[in-house]
Amino acid sequence: MTNQPAIAFLGLGVMGYPMAGHLHNAGHRVTVYNRTAAKAQGWSAEFGGPAAGTPAAAAVGADILLCCVGNDNDLREVMLGEHGAIRGLAPGSLVIDHTTASATLARELGQAFASRGIGFVDAPVSGGQAGAENGRLTIMCGASEADYARAEPLLQTYGVRVQRMGEVGSGQLTKMVNQICIAGLLQGLAEGLHFARGAGLDIDAVVEVISKGAAQSWQMENRHATMAEGRYDHGFAVDWMRKDLDIVLSEARANGSHLPVTALVDQFYGEVQGMGGGRWDTSSLMARLERLRGD
Q: What is the DSSP letter of 237?
C-alpha cells in the first residue's frame, strides 16, 4: 500500500460509498468524509479506512482527492468553503470531481485549484448505483492531458469506460448530452409501453421482438419489466434527474441550443414529483401516462 497514492474521498451517497470501497479494495489508503458523519463512520467500520470531520481534514496528506456530492452548492462548499478541501490540499495534488454539476462551476474550481498548483478533473459518471457497486461506470472527463493521464489509472478502478473529452468543463458538458438522450428515450419508451397496453398487446412479447431491432436500448432492456409492473422504487431518482435537467437547460440557454423535447420531459418529471414520485426511478414517466388514462 505504501506505493499507492494517499486518497481522500468526499461524499458517501449511493454512488460515492461503493466507489470509495473499490479504491480501498484496490489497495489505496482512503480517508473519507461525509456531511452525515454516521455514514462515514459506517464506511470506516466496513472498510477500515479513517473518517475525517471536515473536507479540509480529509484532504491533509492526500495525493488525490475525489468527490461525489449532490449539486453545485454542495460541491462549492466542500471544495472552497470555510472547511473546504482546498484548505487542506498541498501543491502537486490532484482533485477528481464525480459530481454531476455545471460546467461553469467545473471551470471555477479548475481555476481555483490551479492557482494553488493543484490539478483538477471534472469526471461525472453514468451507470447508476448498480454501475458504482459493480465497478462498471462510464466516466467522462474534462482536464488537461497531464491531469487526465494521472487520473485515468485510478478511475479504471471502477470505470468500464473512461475517456478525456477535452479541457475542464468538457466532462460535465458530455454528461449533459447523456441526460438529454436518456430523458427523450425514457419518454419514448414510456409512450410505447403505454400504447402497447392500451392496444391490448403483451408488453413482454412486444419488447422481446422490438428489442432485437432498431428500438433496442439499455433502458428498454433493463426497465421495461418494472415499468409494466408499475414498480419504481429503485434506480436514478426523479429529483436527481430534474436537478440534472435544470443544469442542461441553463447551459442550453447560454449556448443557444434548442431542446424542446428535453424541456417538455422536464415538465413531465415535475408532474411525477407532484404525484409523490420524487424518489421514484426516472422510468416512472410511465406512471404519469397511466394516471392520465386512469389505469
A: B
Render pLDDT for 43-99 as a digit per residue (tens, 0 to 9).
999 999 999 999 999 999 999 999 999 999 999 999 999 999 999 999 999 999 999
Residue 38 sits in the same domain as residue 162: yes
In a domain, 1, yes or no: no
The predicted pLDDT at position 4 comes to 85
Closest CA to 143 of 116, 163, 115: 163
Q: How far apart are CA 252 and CA 104, in angstroms?
A: 13
Please say which residue of 111, 139, 167 terminates a domain.
Answer: 167
d(CA 91, CA 62) in angstroms, rounded, equals: 11
Cα torsion 267, 236, 48, 122: sign:
negative
Ramachandran angles phi, psi of 83, nearest 5°: -115, 30
CA distances from 198 to 46, 79, 202, 224 (A): 49, 51, 10, 15
Is residue 96 a contact partner of residue 79, using CB atoms and an 8 Å limit? no
175 given a catalytic annotation: yes
Span 119-149, pLDDT tens digits: 999 999 999 999 999 999 999 999 999 999 9
Q: How far is CA 88 from CA 4, 53, 85, 143, in A?
A: 20, 12, 5, 21
Task: From 140, 167, 194, give the residue that closes a domain.
Answer: 167
13 and 48, same domain (yes or no): yes
Q: Which domain, by its residues, includes 69?
A: 6-167
Q: Do residues 171 and 122 touch, judged by C-beta distance below 8 A?
A: yes
Kindly name the residue from 39, 175, 212, 243 that is annotated as catalytic. Answer: 175
Report DSSP letters for 45-107, one per residue: HHH---B-SSHHHHHTT-SEEEE--SSHHHHHHHHHSTT-GGGTPPTT-EEEE-S---HHHHH
In the DSSP assignment, the letter for residue 284 is G
